[in-house]
Design brief:
The chain is of the alpha+beta class and 468 residues long. It has 2 domains: 283 residues, Pnp Oxidase, Chain A (Roll); 129 residues, UbiD C-terminal domain-like (3-Layer(aba) Sandwich). 25% of the residues lie in helices and 27% in strands. It has 13 helices and 22 strands. The chain is globular and about 75 Å long. The chain starts with a helix and ends with a helix. The structure holds manganese (II) ion (MN). The site of manganese (II) ion (MN) has 4 residues, from loops.
Length: 468
């Protein structure tokens, strides 16, 4: 059976919280999702009796490990890095698929009929934050996928959206130059590996992000022609929204509470999406991605980042011992923590430089720590910064760098279609002296409390560790 949102939900049903109380997706679902520590399914939504809604599927390392079928949190990044380095999938066209079970076409098209929530107070409207956006390069025919935000408007057949200046933006610029509308689709509700890989930012000349995800899942992804535009869409999605982006239409978009936990950042006149068709499954499940602090929103983007950088940083000086890479969801994607073991002086600094100049614009602060620091624990990382770092010689600031457009702490350079920001990047070396400096390195070993290796204490340890 092809991997789908439904096969994934079955696999995590033992952790799922099923909510049968009536909730309003327009006014209540946002906070419930943002507070949830694990997978949620809403079965009873006022105004949307035919729909269910799910979110918070891969918020933390434990959930991500489950998604990839792994046992330990620290296996996630190295595993995905290995998969991404070695696997390439492909897509196959099919004639029929569950996403075509129900169709809204012509005058029946009503985007408002989908249970698309308002995420936060102050948002410009209801926002689709979970749609995998599909476009195609008009010259090469290679598709691109990304997850971008789309704002509902008063017109149920028109929406506005914002895209960073990346691959789909490059497609749009080609259509603008040809003065033609760009076909675009949003696919909602796929297996999370497809969602994760849709956020990958690397170069791809002869495959697309969905095909990359298919390789990691060990399958071919089944695609089907859209009903109203010349574009292929995933046959096993829960919902597909089809439409056209006209070259010169502009309408207000934003504000939208983003992964930064700010509403400001990219709002302004934005391109308009004219919806030409909506298809979905019977008994549809709406996959929401609540876009506030420490939800699925951050790891969906940081997982392929972490794996990409894990592979990239290993290449520093030909071969560097990188143990793990973590972009903490609680730091909103702009901070990268690298766990490594340096052999030589200068290796940590060059690894940090590599982290600050990688394919993603997000990384503003890069921190390197040693093998004995738990990089998923902010208290441990801050201890290492406080006690293993001389700020005079072990921190480095690089001004004049390109940064993420949603980082409002950085000055903005605006063009007609999108936002750019230029500011500083910071490297923090919080590691011990390199391994070849044995005696100096040993001085920075952490002391062990008496009894640390005594296994007869295990039962008492679990008691004293309990929060009281
Ligand atoms: Mn791409």
């Amino acid at each position: 059976m092809p991997h789908s949102l439904r096969t994934f939900l079955e696999s995590v049903d033992n952790r799922m919280l099923h909510i049968h109380d009536e909730v309003d997706p327009l006014t209540q679902v946002g906070y419930l999702c943002s507070e949830s520590q694990g997978p949620l399914m809403f079965h009873n939504m006022s105004g949307f009796p035919d729909w269910r809604l799910t979110d918070i599927l891969i918020k933390d390392r434990a959930g991500q490990a489950a998604a990839f079928g792994l046992d330990k949190a620290n296996e996630v990044c190295p595993y995905l890095a290995e998969q991404m380095a070695t696997k390439r999938g492909k897509s196959v066209m099919v004639e029929d698929g569950p996403v075509k079970e129900v169709k809204m076409l012509g005058d029946d098209i009503d985007l408002h009929a989908l249970p698309i929530p308002q995420h936060s107070h102050g948002d410009g409207g209801r926002y689709l934050g979970s749609g995998i956006t599909i476009t195609k390069d008009p010259e090469t025919g290679i598709r691109n996928e990304a997850i971008i935000r789309m704002m509902l408007t008063d017109d149920p057949q028109k929406a506005t959206f914002w895209m960073a200046a990346r691959h789909n933006y490059a497609h749009y610029m080609k259509y603008v130059a040809m003065d033609k509308p760009m076909p675009m689709a949003f696919a909602i509700g796929l297996h999370p590996v497809y969602e994760i890989m849709s956020n990958w930012s690397g170069k791809h000349e002869d495959f697309d992000e969905l095909e990359y995800g298919a390789g990691i899942l060990g399958e071919d992804i089944e695609m089907i022609m859209a009903d109203t535009i010349d574009l292929e869409v995933p046959a096993h999605a829960e919902v597909v929204i089809e439409g056209l982006v006209h070259p010169h239409d502009r309408a207000p978009e934003g504000p939208f509470g983003e992964f930064t936990t700010f509403g400001a950042g990219a709002e302004g006149p934005a391109p308009v999406f004219e919806i030409t068709g909506i298809t979905h499954r019977k008994d549809p499940i709406f996959r929401h991605m609540q876009a506030t602090w420490f939800t699925d929103h951050q790891p969906l983007i940081t997982l392929p980042m972490e794996a990409t950088y894990y592979n990239r940083l290993k290449e520093t000086h030909g071969n560097t011992n990188i143990l793990d890479v973590f972009v903490p969801p609680w730091a909103s994607q702009f901070m990268m923590i690298i766990q490594m073991e340096a052999k030589w002086d200068g290796q940590v600094r060059d690894t940090l430089l590599s982290a600050l100049t990688g394919p993603n614009l997000h990384v503003k602060i890069a921190i390197a720590v040693d093998e004995d620091v738990d990089i998923y624990n902010a208290e441990e990382v801050l201890w290492a910064i406080a006690c293993r770092c001389d700020p005079a010689t072990m921190t480095h600031m690089f001004p004049g760098s390109r940064l993420h457009p949603l980082d409002i702490s950085i000055p903005q350079v605006k063009d007609d279609y999108t936002v750019m920001r230029i500011g500083g990047k910071l490297a923090i070396d919080a590691t011990k002296p390199a391994t070849w400096r044995g005696a100096e390195r040993d001085k920075f070993s952490r002391v062990k409390p008496m009894g640390k290796d005594d296994e007869t204490l295990n039962d008492l340890l679990s008691q004293v560790r309990q929060k009281r």
